[in-house]
Amino acid sequence: MWKAIIPLALAFVGQVAGQTVYLAGDSTTAPGGGGEGTEGWGQYLHYSLKIPVVNKAFAGRSARSFTREGRFDEIGKLIKKGDFVVIEFGHNDETVHTFPYYLEQAAKSYVAKGAHVLISSQTPNNPDESGVFVSAPSRFVDLAKTAAANAKVDYVDHSAYALAAYKPLPVQTVDSYFPNDHTHTAPKGADLVAQAFVRGLVCGGSLLSNYVKNATSAIEGACLK
Ligand SMILES: *[C@@H]1O[C@H](CO)[C@@H](O)[C@H](O)[C@H]1NC(C)=O
């Protein structure tokens, strides 16, 4: 009997009343997405969670400019012990050797404040752009994983889970999710990408998965290796 009760009790350790999930990212996550007709996936995450989501992602930002403009600091001032922060960049990042550095700095500063940090790999660009499904991840995917390992925080391979969600869909459907360019999703695409994040979250077993309101069996897709 105790064997059954102890893991259950442990699952509640770290749950503090009034917890919030903060999102740091670029236009693919942000409110309003990348402009007219698009939306960031972060706007759909709250449909799957039991705790509030505050979307602090901002269009056009890289891990570096998010740092320099004080946007990571702004989140740092808001977080309380037990809150969650999801950090997802890559689309606007150029200087490869500094990308993991900025993510690690932000992650470590939040961990020091008692937050649970998740580094999430960037969303994929339209994988059906050329008419054949291309699933090669951006080089920033591996770098995000490295940053998570270095900062000793959770990692969600959002890129891989989003690709897995796009894969079974007809080319025309996937194309319709990218109305303006190959990066920014229409609201329906953003919803799918948010669900893919949640699938990755549940499969990875981060503490935040305790706050997913959907039954695991109700979430589309399989766990990836
Ligand atoms: C969870 O359920 C809500 C509807 O209650 C839905 O909007 C959301 O997309 C679902 N999440 C996943 C990951 O399937």
From TrEMBL:
Keywords: Hydrolase, Signal. SUPFAM superfamilies: SGNH hydrolase. InterPro entries: GDSL, RhgT-like, SGNH_hydro_sf. Gene3D superfamilies: SGNH hydrolase. Residues 1-18 form the signal peptide. GO terms for molecular function: hydrolase activity. Belongs to the 'GDSL' lipolytic enzyme family. PANTHER family: PUTATIVE (AFU_ORTHOLOGUE AFUA_2G17250)-RELATED, RHAMNOGALACTURONAN ACETYLESTERASE. This is Rhamnogalacturonan acetylesterase. It comes from Aureobasidium vineae. The lineage of its organism: Eukaryota, Fungi, Dikarya, Ascomycota, Pezizomycotina.
